[in-house]
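Hi Y.,

Following your request, here is the sequence exactly as I used it, all 297 residues.
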Amino acid sequence: MHIADALELVQLSPLMEQSSGRPEVLIGLIDGPIAMSHADLNASNIREVSGISPGACSRASSAACMHGTFVAGILCAKRGSEAPAIAPNCTLLVRPIFSEITQSTGQMPGASPEELAIAVIESIDAGASVLNLSAALAQPSVKGERDLEQSLDYAARKGVLVVAAAGNQGSVGSSAITRHPWVLPVIACDRQGRPTSESNLGNSIGRRGLGAPGENITSLGADGKRRSFGGTSAATPFVTGAIALLWSEFPAASGAEIKLAITRSGRQQRNSVVPPLLNAWATYQVMALIHSERRAS
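Below is the corresponding structure, written out as tokens. Let me know if you'd prefer a different format.
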């Protein structure tokens, strides 16, 4: 899918013309490390949170580095690059959760619930406004899922929005991430806005989630070459980036206000396992109306 078509599908283009983001808005990228020296990334807008590995890649060819750099390009690459580059002026807060040594290849890397819970809390404590989780849960356990639920509760109390990939198993159901009421699950859609066959669907995903471009998306490769990739991992940062731009334009808004606006802007009824497409510009208009009414009162 061409970048322009992907952005138009979810009405991000007019919002991106309105804003490039603000440094005070911190996007927590809980993923692999990234190629910080990439020519299309602005290293001055990137901060690291200590994790299982440094924020910068040590092996550009590793699956973890490729995945993290790809998602970072969608979020914060320089405008005019070969990536969507939604919010380049926001600060990218990198908290690696995938090891370059142990992570195997695949479209959607996995992490244990315990590891993910720690990363969520550390990213929030480091100042993140919104978290991007393009990860699948591996090695589930009762204790691990309890820890993860508590970390997501912590995000809700702090008003930090959590945007998470719904998963690529092509199944109907939910996970400890997507069934949490504060999380915004994201499915991948094709160029016509239809769910891709591999996207997970479910009641909680349909009620609280959103669809975003996830078919053959182009972004940055850690080796300096462009890379095309698909699935819910690729779709998730479109929603995260839109939230970062909305918060940049409405810095006084609460997380609950933005979450409500972005999930209620679509016309589709929430009575299906399939969520509606993100409509970033409609959400901006809703937020502008709320802001205008607030100033008038």
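The domain at 3-296 is CATH 3.40.50.200 (Rossmann fold).

Thanks again,
Q.
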